Amino acid sequence: MANTTNLLTSLTLPTINNLLANAVITHRPVIVVEGKDDIQFYDTICERIERDFKIVAVENIYGYTEGCDKVIDLTFDIQNTLLSQSHLQKLYLGIIDKDARNYRDINYFNTINGYLNLFVLNYYSYESHYITRENIRKIIKQFTSINNDLLGEVIIENIYNELTSSIVDIL
Questions:
Q1: How large is the angle between the packed helices 133-143 and 153-170, nearest 10 degrees?
Q2: Which of 33, 51, 91, 96 has the fewest CB atoms lying closer than 10 Å?
Q3: Strands (E), 7-137
Q4: CA distance 54 to 35
Q5: d(CA 138, CA 136)
Q6: What is the pLDDT of residues 41-63, one digit of tens each?
Q7: Which residues of the chain fall below pLDDT 70?
């Protein structure tokens, strides 16, 4: 049964080389994320900035399972390809959350920091930090004494635009 499962998996999941070849043909960059739960978060960001990326959970790539370490492994595995075919550097990005290892093990951080096209977020579980106009309003009200009359839509919109443009700059 295991051989059947492995055969089915190898026939249904794309390899990273398949994804990169498709990215070249379609001019649609691939962003690899830690897990399937991250896909909707990054799809939403891409929609808001009106950019077309293919968001793929690492476990949906042949030979990899889910998680931060697997995005790192995948990105490490394609370093030579990215170096030898520099046009692919604009078509691939691996994104991982910052985790405790970044603080405990400086060698770990220095190693992954040197990988091409691996983006380490500034926070753990970044997708849980949704930026919405309503959340901005709630946070300002919670941490300041500003009243509704002073906290107008223009202020909220300016803060929202600043925050979302910072994310766009990352991508």
A1: 110
A2: 51
A3: 30-33, 54-57, 92-96, 118-120
A4: 14
A5: 5
A6: 888 888 888 889 999 999 999 99
A7: 1-11, 99-106, 108-109, 123-130, 166-171
